[in-house]
Design brief:
232 residues, 6-stranded mixed beta barrel, two-stranded antiparallel ribbon, 6 helices, 25% helix, 22% strand, globular, binds 2-acetamido-2-deoxy-beta-D-glucopyranose
Length: 232
Amino acid sequence: MQFSLFQLLGLVLVSLTVVEALNFDWDCTRSLGTCNNACFAVNCKRKPSKLTYDANKSARGPRRTRSGCNRTPCSNTKYKASGNSCDEFPFASVKEGGSGAILRCVKSSENSSEGGQLSAFYKKLKNGEKFGIFVRNFKGAKYCENARLCRNDGFEFKAQRRGFINARAEDDGFSAADTNDNFEGVPFRKFMGNDGVERLFLSNVNDPKSTIVGETITDGEGKEVKITSEVF
Ligand SMILES: *[C@@H]1O[C@H](CO)[C@@H](O)[C@H](O)[C@H]1NC(C)=O
Ligand SMILES: *[C@@H]1O[C@H](CO)[C@@H](O)[C@H](O)[C@H]1NC(C)=O
């Protein structure tokens, strides 16, 4: 097989990107509801899991308006039964956030645990930098634990022009009118860190060949962990 110079350059760039990729090492212990929402949004709603950090804090409010969170669904709709704080995925702090975000009402302590970890992680990023997401200590977040499960528990929702509606499990690119509660997600790939803790790599792109072993991930306190193996 022959490679052109451009293809070779491409390969070099891709491998550099893989090695340099920044990953958020999300500890779900105190933010199970928000982790659960992220797992549902990525796996069942095909929301992007490679996110682009937007350092412009003034852009967050408008994104919360577009996602619907600013219409306080967690105090004035039935969805408030799972918490009083509106969580959105993709986050309001990334370029992918805003319209069409998947919402879940969580406890405000979960919102602040997630928010605190993210803002500490963001100190490592430059504006416009992309990052991936690993979750750990996700036991109890059922959409993370069992990614085949995409049946809406009644608390995953999204904004409409007026009001809110259950987020359906089908791919958005499919037929929007059809509820397909039997849609099955693809299990997330699982990895072991050099701290002996298992993590899920959030992705809906089935690319088993992508190199993740060897990558470094960073948690909200700046602690770095190396991914040592894939768990099957
Ligand atoms: C930050 O976001 C706000 C709201 O979207 C926008 O008006 C402003 O121009 C942005 N600032 C920069 C520097 O991009
Ligand atoms: C959730 O956290 C964000 C910051 O991470 C904050 O701006 C927002 O007000 C919080 N929402 C509630 C309802 O606590």
